[in-house]
Specification:
Blueprint (H helix, E strand, L loop, with lengths): L1 E2 L6 E4 L2 E4 L14 E2 L18 E5 L14 E5 L1 E3 L3 E3 L19 E9 L5 E2 L3 E6 L12 E4 L7 E8 L3 E7 L2 E2 L2 E9 L14 E3 L10 E5 L3 E3 L14 E11 L3 E10 L2 E5 L2 E6 L4 E9 L2 E11 L5 E7 L6 E2 L5 E4 L6 E3 L1 E6 L12 E3 L8 E4 L2 E4 L4 E4 L8 E10 L12 E4 L2 E5 L4 E5 L4 E3 L1 H6 L2 E2 L4 E7 L8 E6 L7 E2 L3 E3 L9 E4 L5 E11 L3 E3 L6 E2 L3 E7 L2 E2 L4 E11 L3 E9 L34 E10 L6 E11 L8 E6 L6 E2 L3 E3 L4 E5 L8 E9 L29 E2 L3 E3 H4 L9 E10 L10 E7 L5 E2 L2 E3 L11 E5 L7 E2 L5 E10 L37 E3 L18 E10 L4 E3 L1 E4 L1 E3 L9 E6 L2 E2 L4 E6 L12 E6 L11 E2 ...
Parallel strand pairs: 57-63, 65-72, 75-81
Antiparallel strand pairs: 1-4, 2-3, 5-54, 6-49, 7-8, 8-54, 9-16, 9-47, 9-48, 10-15, 11-14, 12-16, 13-14, 17-46, 18-30, 19-26, 20-25, 20-28, 20-30, 21-24, 21-26, 22-23, 22-25, 26-27, 28-29, 31-34, 32-33, 33-46, 34-45, 35-41, 35-46, 36-37, 37-38, 38-40, 39-44, 41-42, 42-43, 49-53, 50-53, 51-54, ...
């Protein structure tokens, strides 16, 4: 809250500006001199961020019409203006009296439609939004629009509403005249029904009435001529239609020709299929159809728009001459009787479109079947191909508005982009995916495709679209906006902007193209931007009155800015105020008050378009409205303001992005589309930020803020400041919308932002600037690329391109080449997903699928790329029924994101992963042999990829072929035989297996050909002298045994190999190796330290083996010859370090003992090593009794069981500091206690010992935190004025105690009273005692005293002193008194003396008289004159008053006044009726209450001579002339 006070008024007077006298007034509302200031959001002034506001106030209008804003006003209507403002007696005139509005409507509001054209406008409309008023019906049914004189209804249509909130109307007056057109909106009739109607508009508001026929009947046949008459009761002569349905009986199988002639349109369907039709205009048609004998469904539709009207249906066949189709072959079900009768059922509609909700001038296109147009409730559904239009379009010279609700069904889109589209009034609707659709078009707009695609519309959701088609008067083009709340608010579609100069035909059509859509609430009307609609005025009451007063012009000086307008009213009516500004003292250029919104008290002035920045002259208009008995009045009007001549701060963070949600463009970077600019708001501590002047153009320094470069119309119409070429309140600017013209490729564009505050001050220096470069021209991508020429068996393949400098290379004139991108796709799916805007275009990083994103490209120098696993889903390898043919598309991208496709002679890649079938006709020669000598032949498989010569074959004998081909023997490409050789590997039956691998490398071990063959040979004898040797390496735990033997003496059929067998139990042996015939030894590695058993057998080439050799046995042991190794990097390591301890750990690769050598200098260790003898790989040695804050150097040592000792590198560690106590503070020292505060680091406990000596005697223990923390300990129960000793000792986490220094403090002394004395004060006017005493500390002084039988009184001195003195006055004489001295020190501790007594003496001292003043005077004249003497004096104590006096300067005091017994110290006595012309002497007398009397010295006073009266003077003069008469 803020006090509002008038600190100065500024006004115009006598044709010149005059400053008002500074004066202080207070605006009072309801007795409170405060006003609550609302906080208004930007762009209003935020009072929390600006300087304090002053206030202009007017609370007097008694001066009448004039220019003085303190008491005068410019004009007033029906307003009584004086010290307050009140409505006059005029009653609201011209209340509505029309067909749609009368006196039942209780309220109205005025508004103005201003036509900016010179001439009047006919057949046009404008929009207005009516906010809900509590007097309105909740559904707005009582709204009416009427001319200002109340005589004419104004046509209107309810376009959108939210019950109880607001409603938007399209209003269509017959004519809109040049200038202001005032009219009223009426409401307040609870019984009214809606007055919304289509008026002269071209529209259909909904389809709710569709399908309701006007009449039905059975017509015998179709053969009539109406000649402009009605066909049936309930149907007019024009604008109607009929649908005839029934069955036709065909007499025989034949070709039948049907003929129809009509005026206007017709359509015919047989068995539900269209036969012919022309919907609109007179037509004659014939069509042949082959029909079988029997009944067939028939439907004929006819449309009559205007004119004579006729229709005739005839037929012919080979057996029938041309004739009208007779009723005898026509049948239908009579709806009244449910009987089948001759003729057709005619269903008649009162529109020309068969009740489809399409009244004239809407109509179907020629071939549109209503089956493709269904109506449910108020919604029409268009299916594939359905179209309807208005053949009579709107006036091309005018603007036109078309609005419609649209819903796209979920089934309209699928996962493929561009699966279909609709064309609705020139708006393309494209599918994005299964959840969204997007908008492009319509004609008359230009668009940014990337931005359009970023705006998603939900499927199965209603949106309202508003399209403005500009006519010739507005420079052509179109705008499209949308609403997601039923038309209450509209949003622009990013990327869509008006294309000026693009002429658009104003005919209207809706089409369903490819997919289903739903429409409702269509409205179309001529419209002009040249009509400006004001806000609504104040509510006026039927039978009530309205008063208006316009203020004088107020001058607020240079650079004002405004807060709220505040006015105070009383009474029951309603009120409102309008405020406007001007740069001229005549208010030239100011808005008309009717165009200014009504404000309530407390509203912000800057919230209106009538208040511009930096305009210093202000007027307000106060409006009062009341019902029949007006009682509302205004007491005062205040305007908050201040003046600001300081420039605002500088905005920061100027950033260029490719779009609002796109990537940031580096300074001076390239863009292909108009970018998005944003910045961080500036600040202004005075008036706050109003907005920003923006420049975008090719000049690096454009000079004044008036330059706007390529930017379009000012977003604020120069509201911010006149110097701004382009201004905005936002901290962003989308150049796709704000810069309507074209940008030039290769140009550098500079962006400059300057802040403007709410007082119109513009930031001049420094200005924040940045730049970007523009390029929307495609690069020249003259590069050829080639895919692999052979079939691939993997989705990972390489594509290459060729660069020939100067001939085959990619070049770009402006932004330069960024690189290439690729997209892979299945040819069977027509390269789906590789359109320009699909997100499947990748570069080297495979991170961004956006074709235009240059952050992920293939360098042109790479001259190729290889696909990655992420591409696999988009490639066909033939496994799912596809052809396996894939496409590779390449494109060159420049640094601005423009693209150009690369050419290829073979952009296809064939992928096949189907393995070849088994080889055919596998044969062996011979089938058996005693010498193991065989040969094999076969034929190529029946199916494979690639060519026959490229097939390779894998073969094995007696083992299955592995899928990974690891055991394959290969023949080589194209070889289909194995030459003779020893292929048998064992006695008896052997099996040959062969599998094919084709050119792409496809291979399946399951597709195998086999053949068997037999071998029978003689085995060799037994080897001899089998022996073992231990060849292990213990250091590496490499356990090995070497075996050796002697060849057998009987070789049999020949020795082909030796087989070595091993056992761990001498029972079960396993083959562990094979050697050649010439190798008589074998090393068996990878053993363990256990006992093993071995023998060997000799075998021939048919694997026929002889008996075993002797068995040899041994256990591998080995021996370590070097120490164990450290196994963990960085070891040994010191851990668990404390002030007095540490733990050393390390790990070795085998068991050893543990020792640590340690010292405080490098390489110098204590003689005794610390450790343990346990053999283990994990070592730990705990070190204790170390010194805090000390660096130790150490090495570790370990010795294994074989005596090998290892030593680590030297390491070091530093013990932690000892726990520390610091920041010791002694506070709160009192007489009995103190507080000890301190911080502790590195301790787990603190022990505070304290006492009156260094032996202490008391201790307090505190558990402390691990980190540095502060603690306070309160010590109480201490002796005062005593020196105390304390020490804070610390204990660390390991229990080590650290003794710290002793410190002291002294408690404060308690106050003590000594030397209490009291004695009378000499020569005092009454009994007075002086009390004195001493204290040991500074303290206050207080004496409690009184007679012993009465309550005591206090005499106090609050000064802190050690020597005290209190004087007691006014004591009673001869009385026993008791007293006690009390002193309190600064801490509030008191000390009291013992109670003492004394007795006052008798009063024998008379009062002292002083300052005696005597004044004489004479009253009256002549003989009647009398003297008077006034005597005054003072005494030093209360006493009586008396004066003694006598004639002459001396002598007895012959007279005394009566004694005045009122005791006082100021005395006055008046002596009356004393003789004039006399001398008196006198003395004053005073007696105190003890009757001690004193008197003054003798005083003399002269009483003057009396003056003569006028008669005496005359008489004496005559007597001197004539003498005295006897």
């Amino acid at each position: 809250m803020k006090l509002v006070r008038t600190i100065g008024q500024k006004f115009l007077q006598a044709g010149r500006r005059v400053r008002a006298v500074e004066r202080s007034k207070r605006v009072v509302a309801g007795g409170l001199a405060v006003v609550l200031l609302a906080t208004i959001a930007f762009p209003l002034i935020d009072k929390a961020t600006v300087s304090a506001l002053s206030t202009y106030t007017q609370n007097d209008w008694s001066g009448g019409v004039g220019t003085d804003p303190s008491s005068q006003y410019s004009e007033a209507t029906n307003m009584d203006a004086g010290a307050t403002l009140a409505i006059g007696n005029q009653v609201n005139a011209d209340w509505c009296n029309t067909a749609k509005c009368n006196s039942s409507w209780t309220r109205r509001k005025l508004f103005t439609a201003t036509n900016l054209d010179n001439g009047f406008l006919a057949s046009t409309a404008f929009r207005i939004t009516i906010p809900y008023d509590a007097a309105m019906q909740n559904d707005f049914d009582d709204i009416r629009f009427v001319s200002q004189d109340g005589a004419y209804d104004v046509g209107f249509y309810l376009n959108a509403k939210t019950d109880g909130v607001s409603a938007e109307y399209v209003v269509s007056p017959t004519n809109i005249y040049s200038g202001a057109n005032n009219m009223y909106v009426y409401f307040g009739n609870g019984a009214a029904s809606t007055g919304s109607a289509k008026s002269s508009l071209l529209f259909q508001d909904n389809f709710a009435s569709a399908g309701t026929p006007a009449a039905t009947r059975i017509d015998a046949n179709i053969d009539f001529a109406l000649n402009g008459t009605s066909p049936i009761t309930g149907v007019g002569a024009d604008n109607w239609s009929v649908r005839w349905t029934g069955k036709i009986t065909i007499p025989a199988d034949d070709n039948y020709t049907f003929y129809i002639s009509s005026d206007d349109g017709n359509r015919m369907f047989v068995d539900g299929n269209p036969l012919f039709g022309s919907w609109g205009g007179p037509t004659s048609t014939a069509q042949i159809i082959s029909l079988t004998a029997g009944e067939h469904d028939i439907r004929i539709e006819y449309q009559q728009q205007s004119g004579p009207g006729y229709a005739q249906l005839r037929w012919s066949s080979n057996a029938i001459s041309i004739e009208t189709v007779p009723s005898s072959v026509l049948t239908a079900v009579d709806p009244d009787t449910s009987n089948t009768v001759q003729g057709l059922l005619g269903t008649y509609y009162n529109d020309a479109n068969l009740g489809t909700g399409l009244p004239s001038p809407w109509q179907w296109y020629q071939w549109d079947d209503p089956a493709r147009f269904s109506i449910t409730g108020d919604t029409a559904t268009l299916y594939d191909g359905a179209s309807f239009n208005a053949m009579n379009g709107l006036d091309d010279s005018k603007d036109a508005v078309v609005e419609f609700d649209l819903q796209v069904a979920p089934g309209d889109c699928n996962s493929s982009n561009y699966a279909g589209y609709k064309l609705i009034f020139g708006v393309d609707i494209g599918c994005d995916d299964g959840n969204y659709f997007h908008i492009s078009g319509p004609q008359g707009t230009s668009y940014n495709w990337d931005q359009l695609r970023a705006t998603h519309f939900q499927l199965d959701t209603w949106y309202r679209f508003r399209m403005v088609r500009y006519g010739s008067q507005s420079g052509y083009g179109a705008d499209l906006t949308y609403s997601s709340n039923g038309g209450l608010t509209y949003q622009t579609i990013p990327g869509l902007s008006r294309s000026f100069g693009y002429s658009v035909n104003q005919s209207i059509s809706f089409s369903g193209g490819g997919r289903q859509s739903k429409l409702r609430s269509i409205i179309a009307y001529s419209y002009t931007h040249r009509v400006i609609v004001s806000s609504l005025g104040l509510t006026e009451f039927n039978g009530g009155g309205v008063g208006r007063l316009t203020s004088a012009i107020v001058d607020f000086d240079e650079h004002p800015y405004f807060g709220n307008v505040i006015y105070n009213t009383s009474g029951t009516g309603i009120s409102g105020i309008r405020v406007r500004t001007s740069a001229s003292d005549s208010m030239a250029g100011a808005k008309d008050f009717n165009d200014c919104p009504l404000l309530a008290s407390g509203d912000a002035i800057t919230a209106t378009a009538c208040v511009a920045l930096n305009e210093r002259y202000v007027q307000y208009q106060i409006i009062l409205s009341d019902e029949a008995t007006p009682d509302i009045s205004v007491n005062s009007v205040s305007i908050e303001y201040s003046n600001d001549t300081n420039a605002p701060g500088v905005p920061s963070g100027l950033t260029i992005k490719k779009s609002s949600s796109g990537p940031v463009v580096a300074p001076d970077g390239w863009v292909r589309l108009k970018p998005y600019v944003s910045w961080t708001a500036a600040t202004d501590a005075d008036s706050g930020i109003a907005g920003y002047c923006v420049y975008v153009g090719t000049q690096e320094d454009p000079g004044s803020l008036g330059e706007q470069g390529v930017l379009g119309s000012d977003a604020l119409n120069n509201y911010i400041v006149g110097d701004c070429g382009f201004s905005t309140r936002n901290t962003y600017l989308d150049l796709a919308q704000a810069a309507p013209g074209n940008m030039t490729s290769g140009e550098r564009y500079y962006v400059r932002i300057a802040a403007v505050d709410n007082a119109g001050n513009a930031q001049s220096d420094p200005l924040i600037t940045t730049s970007f470069r523009f390029d929307d021209e495609e690069p020249d991508g003259m590069v050829f690329y080639n895919t692999p020429g052979t079939v691939q068996n993997s989705k990972i393949f390489t594509t290459a391109w060729t660069i020939v400098p100067g001939l085959l290379e990619a070049v770009d004139e402006h932004s330069g080449i960024a690189g290439a991108k690729y997209c892979v796709a299945k040819v069977d799916e027509n390269f789906a997903g590789c359109d320009e805007d699909d997100m499947n275009w990748y570069g080297a990083n495979h991170t961004s699928g956006d074709l235009r994103d240059t952050s992920d490209v293939l360098p042109m120098s790479a001259q190729g790329f290889t696909t990655v696993a992420a591409d696999a889903a988009r490639l066909d390898d033939g496994t799912t029924g596809g052809s396996g043919v894939n496409g590779v598309l390449m494109a060159v991208v420049d640094n601005a994101g423009n693209v150009e496709g690369m050419a290829s002679s073979a952009p296809y890649v064939v992928i096949s992963v189907q393995a070849p079938s088994a080889p055919q006709n596998l044969q062996v020669t011979p089938s058996s042999s005693t010498s193991n000598n065989f040969s094999f032949t076969w034929d190529a498989p029946s199916s494979f990829s690639g060519s026959t010569p490229d097939i390779n074959y894998c073969w094995t004998v007696n083992e299955p072929i592995e899928d990974d081909q690891s055991n394959c023997h290969w023949t080589g490409a194209g070889v289909t035989q194995l030459a003779a050789g020893p292929y048998a590997t064992e006695q008896g039956v052997n099996t040959m297996r062969i599998v094919a691998k084709d050119q792409p490398g496809n291979f399946s071990a399951a597709n195998v050909a086999t053949v068997t063959f037999s071998a029978s040979t003689t085995a060799p004898g037994a080897p001899t002298d089998m022996d073992l040797a231990d060849v292990s390496t213990r250091a590496t735990s490499s356990w090995k045994l070497a075996s050796s033997w002697v060849a057998p003496s009987q070789p049999g059929s020949g020795i082909a190999s030796y087989k070595i067998y091993r056992s761990t139990d001498n029972v079960s042996f396993t083959q562990v190796g094979t050697t050649s015939p010439s190798n008589l030894s074998f090393i068996d590695a990878g053993l363990s330290q256990i006992t093993y058993y071995y023998y060997v057998r000799a075998c021939d080439n048919a694997n026929n083996c002889g008996v075993p050799s002797n068995v040899a046995t041994k256990k591998p042991t080995g021996r370590f010859t070097s120490p164990a190794n450290l196994t963990v990097s960085g070891q040994p390591k010191a851990t668990n370090i404390g002030p007095k301890k540490a733990t050393i750990t390390w790990t070795t690769d085998r068991d050893s003992d543990s020792k640590v050598a340690i010292g405080t200098a490098p390489g110098q260790y204590a003689q005794q090593e610390i450790g343990n003898s346990a053999q283990q790989p994990d070592h730990q040695v705990d070190l204790t009794n170390l010194q805090p804050s000390t660096t130790y150097y150490y090495v570790t040592k370990w010795t294994d069981s074989d005596g090998n000792t290892g030593t680590s590198p030297e390491k070091s560690f530093t013990t932690l500091p000892a726990p520390n106590v610091g920041e010791v503070a002694i506070t709160g020292v009192s007489v009995s206690g103190a507080t000890i505060s301190f911080s502790v680091t590195g301790a787990s406990q603190a022990r505070l010992s304290y006492g009156a000596s260094e032996s202490f005697g008391a201790v307090k223990t505190i558990d402390t935190a691990a980190t540095t923390s502060t603690y306070s300990v309160n010590l109480d129960g201490l002796s005062d004025d005593t020196k105390f000793y304390f020490r804070i000792d610390l204990v660390d986490a390991d229990g080590n105690l650290y003794i710290k220094d002793v410190q002291t403090f002294t408690t404060k002394a308690r106050p003590k009273i000594t030397n209490l004395r009291f004695q009378p004060v000499a020569d005092a006017p009454s009994s007075t005692q002086q009390i004195t005493w001493d204290t040991n500390v500074p303290a206050t002084s207080r004496v409690s005293y009184g007679p012993q039988s009465t309550p005591p009184k206090d005499a106090v001195d609050s000064a802190l002193v050690t020597q005290h003195s209190i004087v007691l006055t006014g004591l009673v004489d001869d009385t026993d008194y008791a007293l006690q001295a009390i002193s309190v020190n600064a801490e509030g501790i008191s000390a009291s003396s013992e109670v003492r007594t004394f007795k006052t003496a008798l009063d024998t001292r008379p009062p002292k008289i002083s300052e005696v003043v005597i004044e004489s005077s004479v009253r009256g004249t002549g003989s009647e004159a009398r003297g008077q003497v006034v005597v005054s004096w003072k005494t030093d104590e209360l006493s009586t008053s008396q004066v003694g006096y006598g004639i002459g300067q001396t002598g007895a005091l012959t007279n005394r006044t009566g004694e005045d017994n009122n005791l006082t110290t100021d005395h006055v006595v008046v002596l009356s009726d004393v003789q004039v012309s006399s001398i008196y002497h006198l003395q004053v007398f005073s007696a105190d209450k003890a009757r001690n009397i004193s008197h003054s010295d003798n005083q003399t006073v002269v009483v003057g001579r009396a003056s003569e009266n006028v008669f005496t003077i005359i008489f004496n003069a005559l007597e001197s002339i004539f003498g005295r008469r006897n």
